[in-house]
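Handout, section B. The chain below has 445 residues.
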Amino acid sequence: MSEFSVGTPAPATRAKVVTKTILAWASWDWGSAAINAVMTTFVFTVYLTSELFGNKDANSVVLGNALAIAGVAIALLAPVMGLRSDAGGRRRFWLGVNTVIVAVLTAACFFVFPEPRFLVLGVTLIALASVFSEFASVNYNAMLPQISTPATIGKVSGFGWGMGYLGGIAALSIVLFTLVTPIFPWAGSTEDNALNLRLVAVFSAVWFMGFGLPVLFAVPEIPGTAGGPRFTVMQSYKELWRRVVALARADRHTVYFLLASAVFRDGLAAVFTFGGIIAAGTFGFPLTQVIIFAIVGNVVAAIGAMVGGWLDDRVGPKNVIVVSLIGLIIAGLGVFFSHTANGFWVFGLMLCLFVGPAQSSSRAFLARLAPAGQEGELFGLYATTGRAVSFLAPALFAAAITLATPHVAEAQRYGILGILVVLAAGLALLLPVHPPRHAAAGQAS
């Protein structure tokens, strides 16, 4: 930990947000965006589910099942990984190990040739990369109290999220204009044997590894528990359960927040997951326009995350999340009632504006709650609870469309209401949660 614990007001001289250490930390967010935006959202999974590998619907089912299994693995293992890295004083070590594993798995996707027999290899590599990426994120997020003070924790979290969005824009733009739809054709941009799409994997691995390295040199390793226990895997689960029970008794509002954030974070993820689908299916956007909207939307989300982080340290993370969720519900209703492309641009970008602050302040909220030395454990639970309800928004999105189909011509539009139900439920669960006690100390300093 840094010399200032989360509960200790920091002097004014430490209020600086953008330092070399924080830049190095945020660089990992910038680099990981290549995995999230390029590999799992816009490019490589689209390649895997294309007709190059057989029936598109069947390919989508295979990919979905693989990611579901990955989600179960994350839910079962993430909190244990966080607990063990805290106790062993190896947070930075495991961040480095998992970062390297993700980069290697991503690079290996180069060998997924456009033939049906390579589909299982491709989805397996993507699923494994998502598991180890989540493990890395547990240790990465747990570093937030190390590199910030109570007065800056919100701004630092917002800065990291903003860097992540901007990194995704940069990586996605490079991939699109050099490999997918090259401005200047070159040997690597050929579509023969899908070389251009397979090179996307190599680019993403190099991008992630290159920008993920600085944090390993800039942020010091945490001290282990002197003379403390070294848990086996089974002992880790027993210890984890004991601590969760103790946490519920000592500060049940932390548990309430984990549950509330799991619900509204699923809604936040759905905004991006289904935004492109709605733009194309309901509002008739061609693929090029969908990509342009995605890039502009990420810029807006980055701005929102940074502004929200600044407000977080002044009004507290809970207030920022509540306002953001209300803004998202209003914007979502605007999209639902819009019938023109211009309406989607206005309210769609409004959605992006509020997604960033909600994500950033959610991380800052938990970082303020985390007792010193238990950050990894709590962020492991954060990952687990999020995965536990990750089916909610997709299920309600599909259910709303199914219910509307017999009665209206544009049923897909009603999927928006399913997402809004999830966001509203998350907001309702969040309202009774007490804000972090440490927030007031941070604002006072």
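Note. The first helix runs from residue 20 to 42. Compare this with the example in section A.
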